């Protein structure tokens, strides 16, 4: 177990160190997410009044789209430098490599979400501050479910020529339940009186999806990457 955690930590630290030096993926992802929100704001806000219940959907659309961009760009480095092959040949637990890549992706998406949530709240007059705890739980659980599937698909498609097209085609149908649960849970918190019991229900459903997706990813990572 100690070796597993050590390998996961090394992989995550490697990804974050490379990203902190270049900030290429971070800047690109944040810019894309902000642009996505601004486009929806211009389309859905009339005379300072946003469309009712639009904020939750816009937030999760921006998270999904920017997360897809980050996933594709992150594994682009692995393809050019043959890093992924070297990691797979290393005498370590292969699932630990997946966990390290996943943790690095979660850290990157967390930074993007720190920018997104206040921006969506400002442009769409969304009272995210009414129930901050459950909002954080929903976003963390939803991001984990989305990134857990996206990480294994991005790694699996790293050598595919049409990976930029195949990644969203494979990813979105499977993660639609996660996005729907995130939207519904966030919408419950944005009511005039936050519906925390309903938010807890959707958060519990997201945790269930997380357990299923992470377990299946850990189980299938090595066979998919070694074939």
What structural class do you assign from the helix and strand content? mainly alpha
In one word, what is the shape?
globular
Q: Quaternary arrangement of the chains shown?
A: single chain
Main sheet: strand order = 1-2
- Using only C-alpha atoms, the radius of gyration works out to 18 Å
- In total, how many beta strands? 2
Low-pLDDT residue spans: none
Order of helices and strands: HHEEHHHHHH
* Residues in helices, as a percent range: over 70%
Q: What count of helical segments does DSSP give? A: 8
Report the end-to-end length measured between terminal Cα atoms. 26 Å
Biggest sheet layout: 2 strands, antiparallel
DSSP strand (E) fraction? under 5%
Mean pLDDT metric: 86
Structure description:
- This protein has 227 residues and is mostly helical.
- The protein has one domain.
- The protein is built from eight helices and two strands; from the N terminus they run ααββαααααα.
- Strand 1 and strand 2 form a beta hairpin.
- The longest helix has 31 residues, at 196-226.
- The two termini are 26 Å apart.
- The model has no long low-confidence stretch (mean pLDDT 86).
Secondary-structure topology with pairs:
Layout lengths: L1 H21 L1 H21 E2 L2 E2 L3 H28 L1 H7 L4 H30 L8 H25 L6 H27 L6 H31 L1
Antiparallel strand pairs: 1-2
Helix pairs in contact: 1-5, 2-3, 2-5, 3-5, 3-6, 3-7, 5-6, 5-8, 6-7, 6-8, 7-8
What distinguishing features does this structure have?
227 residues; mainly alpha; globular
């Amino acid at each position: 177990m100690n070796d597993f955690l050590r390998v996961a930590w090394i992989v995550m630290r490697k990804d974050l160190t490379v990203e902190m030096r270049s900030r290429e993926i971070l800047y690109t992802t944040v810019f894309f997410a902000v642009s996505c929100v601004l486009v929806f704001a211009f389309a859905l806000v009339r005379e300072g009044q946003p469309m009712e219940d639009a904020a939750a959907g816009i937030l999760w659309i921006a998270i999904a789209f920017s997360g897809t961009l980050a996933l594709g760009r992150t594994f682009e480095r692995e393809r050019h430098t043959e890093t992924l092959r070297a990691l797979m040949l290393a005498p370590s637990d292969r699932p630990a490599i997946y966990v390290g890549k996943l943790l690095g992706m979660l850290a990157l998406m967390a930074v993007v979400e720190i920018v997104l949530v206040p921006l969506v709240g400002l442009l769409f007059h969304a009272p995210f501050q009414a129930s901050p705890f459950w909002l954080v739980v929903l976003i963390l659980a939803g991001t984990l479910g989305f990134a857990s599937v996206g990480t294994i698909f991005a790694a699996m498609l790293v050598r595919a020529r049409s990976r930029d097209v195949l990644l969203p085609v494979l990813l979105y149908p499977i993660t639609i339940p996660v996005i729907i649960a995130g939207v519904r849970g966030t919408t419950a918190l944005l009511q005039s009186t936050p519906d925390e019991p309903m938010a807890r229900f959707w958060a519990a459903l997201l945790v269930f999806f997380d357990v299923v997706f992470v377990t299946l990813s850990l189980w299938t990572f090595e066979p998919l990457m070694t074939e």
